[in-house]
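It is worth pausing here to work through a concrete case rather than discussing structure prediction in the abstract. The textbook approach is simple: state the sequence, then state the predicted structure, then interpret. We follow exactly that order.
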Amino acid sequence: MAIYLTKESKVLVQGMTGGEGMKHTRRMLAAGTNVVGGVNPRKAGRTVDFDGRGVPVFGSVAEGIHATGADVTVVFVPPAFAKTAVVEAADAGIGLAVVITEGIPVHDTVAFHAHAQEKGTRVIGPNCPGLITPGQSNAGIIPSDITKPGRIGLVSKSGTLTYQLMYELREIGFSTCVGIGGDPVVGTTHIDCLAAFQDDPDTDLVVLIGEIGGDAEERAAAYVRDHVTKPVVGYIAGFTAPEGRTMGHAGAIVSGSSGTAQGKKEALEAAGVSVGNTPTETAKLALACLERGRASAHS
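Step two, the predicted structure:
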């Protein structure tokens, strides 16, 4: 079991024939992802060889879905074309669009997210590393060799911290890791992932990584308090950020007491979430939580 992505998922890559698309399609295939095609109107009809595996290029997402039954698309197109790419995928009926592209104007993201919602397409991203169900499928740019299948769910705003926690907890392993992206507007939220992990019988514990700026973590805390019965461990990036400074991600700006790491930590802890002060401490809290769960199961 996993959330959003399994070994059954059939993946298209919009922008597969570009430099980043080629590099990461090769990595996705090496991780076992069932990449069934690329999309590029100018190169339709060609087949691209990836270490002996030929992947066809289609002229449109609709054509790719019709030919292969694809249900996931990974978007590697430049920012100026991202809105058109996601709208096209949603119009074609894709179930999941994973938008890796960074630098997309916020008004474009708002527009394609609203359109995707209307069409029933889940969007992950933009400006995100994608998601991985270790041992099954990898849609995006997350390294597949730093962890293994297991029973921890991970949802994170930060790509780098996604990788660090995956590595720190590699001996336990993960059901699914979702990098939701750090832009001010994202398609899939912490709350969406918390709900999915709560319903996943193969996830025993959830690691939630947030960062300064906005109120997504405070809203996630309220959701955990009211709806999540599984243990949740958290980490907030940006404890040392000066007030009013944007830190890396477009959404990470703090004004006054709103959006501070301390405020988010306190909100999560009030909801029963154990929050680490460093990624390593967060990993230790997760291990301790799992140990307590095992001990109570045997008592």
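Step three, interpretation. The CA atoms of residues 27 and 127 lie 19 Å apart. The mean pLDDT is 93.
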